[in-house]
Amino acid sequence: MSFDLRFTKGQGTGNDFVLFSDPEGDTELTPTQIAAVCDRRFGVGADGVIRAVRSRNLDDGASALAEDPSAVWFMDYWNADGTVSEMCGNGIRVFTSYLLDQGLAELPPGGSIAIGTRAGVRSVRRTATGFQADLGTWRLDGGEPLVRAKSLPVARPGLGIDVGNPHVVVALADDGELDGLDLAYQPILDPAPEAGANIEFVVPAEPLVEDGVGRIRMRVHERGSGETLSCGTGAVASALAVRYWAGESAPNDWRVQVPGGVLGVRMFQADDGEHVALAGPAELVFDGVLSLA
Ligand SMILES: N[C@@H](CCC[C@H](N)C(=O)O)C(=O)O
């Protein structure tokens, strides 16, 4: 039996999503339906699907509410291949913009909203130019696997970082090496993490730090979606990795240039340890109705 799905297409620095609202949690799409929606030739086309569900109507949402009772909305995030992810840094800004647009939440400029995610509750603040999401604490995780990618002559060491979802960051020598990467092919991690990882390739700008802000370029191969124009959690993991490699004197403010635009990353101290925040644009592009089988 087919049914109509009312959706909104949104994007943040070119990382694009199909969003739909399902407050009661009775429209869970199958992985096959998600992949069909995200297909760029036969579907709407997107890097992921985001369902807005009231937290009280999901098991993962119950944990979010236990952590913060004000997290009434849950960002149910799916990659383009129909797998789930714990977190999406660009997606959470676009999701917040979608909640406001649909009249599902209110957020005055300067105000913050708590959003439930599989990685825990995240706070998103409305700024003058977009949204800033506090992605919480982070940790080195996943070791230092070797990374092989098409058009890299030799394997390079990566650094595993968890920012709610898993990342491996690889430093490249220069812009030529970054631009020459062929990310149509899945890079190989050795050892391969059981849950997979998003893989970011980074190059420092020259000079690395300008006016107290660290500057890097990044390209990404997202777990479950392939190469994308941007990855918010990937930008955060990349800034954290470069700061780690650069040592004590490295700044806590970073500007990350991705193929789809620029993201801002800031590390700051909070009660439970160091947090990392991500700022950038969020745009709702068009609405539509999809007939799904
Ligand atoms: N594009 C996202 C990350 C989406 C999830 C990722 N592919 C994963 O599987 O963890 C972002 O902006 O952070």
**What low-confidence regions span 5 or more consecutive residues with pLDDT below 50?**
none
CATH architecture of the largest domain: Roll
| Mean pLDDT figure | 97
* CATH third-tier fold name of the largest domain: Diaminopimelate Epimerase, Chain A, domain 1
**Radius of gyration of CA atoms, rounded to a whole number:** 18 Å
Largest sheet: 19 strands, mixed
A few lines on this structure:
This protein has 293 residues and is of the alpha+beta class. The protein has helices at residues 31-38, 59-67, 89-101, 175-180, 232-246, and strands at residues 3-12, 15-21, 48-54, 73-79, 112-117, 120-126, 131-137, 139-140, 146-148, 156-162, 166-171, 188-190, 198-210, 213-222, 226-228, 253-258, 261-270, 273-280, 283-292. It contains 5 helices and 19 strands.
How would you describe this structure to a colleague?
The chain is an alpha+beta fold and 293 residues long. It folds into two domains: 3-136 and 281-285, Diaminopimelate Epimerase, Chain A, domain 1, CATH 3.10.310; 139-277, Diaminopimelate Epimerase, Chain A, domain 1, CATH 3.10.310. It is 17% helix and 45% strand. The chain has five helices and 19 strands. The protein has helices at 31-38, 59-67, 89-101, 175-180, 232-246; strands at 3-12, 15-21, 48-54, 73-79, 112-117, 120-126, 131-137, 139-140, 146-148, 156-162, 166-171, 188-190, 198-210, 213-222, 226-228, 253-258, 261-270, 273-280, 283-292. It has a 19-stranded mixed beta sheet that branches. A hairpin with a 2-residue loop joins strand 5 (112-117) and strand 6. It is globular, with a radius of gyration of 18 Å. The termini are close together. GO terms for molecular function: diaminopimelate epimerase activity. Its EC number is 5.1.1.7. Its main location: cytoplasm. Substrate binds at residues 15, 79, 89-90, 165, 198, 222-223, 232-233. Pathway: Amino-acid biosynthesis; L-lysine biosynthesis via DAP pathway; DL-2,6-diaminopimelate from LL-2,6-diaminopimelate: step 1/1.
